[in-house]
Design a protein that fits this description.
It is built from 10 helices and 16 strands. With 343 residues, the protein is an alpha/beta fold.
Length: 343
């Protein structure tokens, strides 16, 4: 029996589907938070046992972990949220919830897979022609207001070339959500060191696909753009639209979870397509798949805590997990353009 926390959510439900397809028995723990969903969604496979409850509740978690042989921990608050007023909720759901789960797993043999995020890196990896690999500090508000979106070399001020981020890059969380995801990793790896349980942290990049939540500040950028198109509005693309990310389909992410629950080396892995694309490019690809869709509007606006470029190296996941993304980006965008989103 494999426990999937947050198994009724966007990514979690696809993990459930992939595990059931692989012949596993699955138990789901989900709190059905109003920001995500209020009841069991129709897409949640009825073959999965469901426990409705909060991962922060020790009694509920004790029932959820009873008899399980592996855990896929997907339950979390996601996204940048509304403002700093969300800070206590993020820490409670992501970090306290993880601690309660780990405490309940004392004596458990594992493995554990944690759904982590690329946000732990902060800014991506950059190379200066003079100083090599450098780490630019957070971008200044004055620069962003003036439309200077590219971070300069912190030593000489020259232009930088962004590169794919490997898993051994220094971590540098730059918003509340990122800080809580990194704390989840630290808690899980501390648990691994003390118990010998195999823990794998999958650092998801920008995940998109069916069942994403819509019309919420906690959704990813792909869902926000899709919601705008569905309402007949042009999506608003921040900065100049040239900021680069790695957009990976949720079915690929689910497959990575199944692989990570197998006999694979522990540690952190990027889960990504391996092909960087700009946010503007993603918005246009989605718009092309929707007849009569308005052109995306590049606003020049910016958000505190956003980073400029962060995209991943897929090498370690391919080498050690046997994971390579297989979903085609354009086909995925066409599917996503008409896929049902979660209210």
């Amino acid at each position: 029996m494999i426990l999937v926390t947050g198994g009724a959510g966007f990514i979690g439900s696809h993990v459930v589907d992939a595990l059931l397809e692989a012949g596993e028995e699955v138990r789901v723990l989900d709190a059905f938070l109003p920001a995500a969903h209020r009841s069991r969604p129709a897409y949640l496979d009825p073959r999965a046992e469901l426990i409705e409850g909060d991962v922060r509740d020790p009694e509920v978690v004790a029932r959820a972990v009873a008899g399980v042989t592996a855990v896929s921990h997907q339950a979390a608050m996601v996204g940048l949220g509304v403002d700093i007023g969300d800070i206590a909720d993020y820490v409670a759901h992501n970090d306290l919830g993880t601690a309660v789960l780990l405490r309940a797993l004392r004596g458990f043999a594992g493995p554990i897979v944690l759904g982590s995020s690329m946000v732990v890196y902060g800014e991506g990896r950059y190379r200066c022609p003079e100083h090599g690999v450098v780490r630019p500090p957070p971008r200044a508000a004055d620069d962003l207001d003036a439309g200077r979106f590219e971070p300069p070399c912190p030593s000489c001020g020259r232009s930088l070339e962004p590169e794919a981020v490997p898993e051994d890059a220094p971590v540098d969380p730059r918003n509340v959500y990122a800080a809580t995801k990194l704390a989840q990793e630290h808690l899980c790896f501390a648990f691994a060191r003390e118990t010998g349980v195999r823990v794998t942290a999958l650092r998801y990049h920008n995940v998109y696909g069916p069942r994403m939540p819509r019309d919420t500040p906690y959704a990813g950028v792909a869902s926000i753009f899709r919601s705008a198109f569905a309402a007949g509005r042009a999506p608003r693309v921040f900065e100049d639209g040239a900021q680069r990310r790695d957009f990976v389909h949720v079915r690929d992410v689910a497959r990575a979870n199944v692989l990570a629950l197998g006999d694979t080396p522990p540690g952190a892995y990027n889960v990504c397509s391996g092909v960087p694309r700009s946010v503007g490019e993603m918005a246009r690809a989605l718009g092309r798949a929707i007849p009569g869709a308005p052109e995306p509007v590049v606003t020049g606006d910016w958000r505190a805590g956003d980073v400029r470029h962060v995209f991943a190296s897929a090498d370690r996941a391919a080498r050690e997990l046997g994971f390579t993304a297989s979903e085609d980006f354009d086909a995925g965008m066409r599917e996503f353009a008409t896929a049902e989103l979660r209210a």
